[in-house]
Write a structure and sequence with these properties.
Strand order of the largest sheet: 1-2-3-4-5
Largest sheet: 5 strands, antiparallel
Number of helices: 0
Distance between the termini: 27 Å
Strand content: over 45%
Helix content: under 10%
Shape: elongated
Low-confidence stretches: none
Structural class: mainly beta
C-alpha cells in the first residue's frame, strides 16, 4: 500500500495478487473525506495460468473495471 497526495487530497494505491480470484488487483481509493465515501477505481486482471508459471493475463474481455463516487486523478488523453 502507498499513499499519494494529489492537489491536497490523499489516495491509497494498492496492487496485489488475489488468490481467491486468481487475478492481479489494482486500486486507487480516495482517503480525503468521510471513510468509504471517497472516489475509487479498481481493475482486476485474471491470471490465465494461476498454477502453471508466471502471470499470464487472460483476454481483455475478462478484465473487470469498477469506479465510483467522484473524480480520481487519472490522466485521460
Amino acid at each position: 500500500m502507498e499513499v499519494w497526495d494529489h492537489d491536497g487530497k490523499l489516495y491509497e494505491v494498492n496492487s496485489y495478487y488475489s488468490l481467491p480470484d486468481d487475478a492481479w488487483q489494482y486500486e486507487l481509493v480516495g482517503l480525503t473525506g468521510a471513510p468509504g465515501a471517497g472516489p475509487y477505481i479498481a481493475v482486476t486482471i485474471p491470471d490465465g495460468t494461476p498454477d502453471d508459471g508466471p502471470f499470464t493475463p487472460r483476454p481483455a474481455s475478462e478484465v473487470m473495471f469498477r469506479a465510483g463516487s467522484g473524480d480520481v486523478p487519472w490522466p485521460f488523453h
